[in-house]
């Protein structure tokens, strides 16, 4: 079993777990966490698809996309957590 296959299977597993959690959970914090897991699963699959095992060369374009995606993910997570806190605080009043 090659390392590419391991990353593909692990990424697909993370995608499946995250989609299942998004579909079955109503808690806001758990849904935000599931979105983070979904993004990491996509990043794993994208990174694994950029590697050519025949030559051993890795394509830098998927790596740049994943790095950009991580930066965007951090910003979106911060915004979602702030929004969830504000929504949770307004329901207590």
Automatic annotation (TrEMBL):
Name listed for the protein in its UniProt record: NADH-ubiquinone oxidoreductase subunit 4L
InterPro entries, sorted: NUOK/Mnh_C1-like (IPR039428)
Segments passing through the bilayer: 6-23, 32-51, 63-84
Cellular compartments annotated: Membrane
Gene Ontology CC: one annotated term: membrane
The keyword Transmembrane appears for this protein: yes
Keywords in alphabetical order: Membrane, Transmembrane, Transmembrane helix, Ubiquinone
Membrane topology note: Multi-pass membrane protein
The species this protein was found in: Roseivivax halodurans JCM 10272
Matching Gene3D superfamilies: 1.10.287.3510
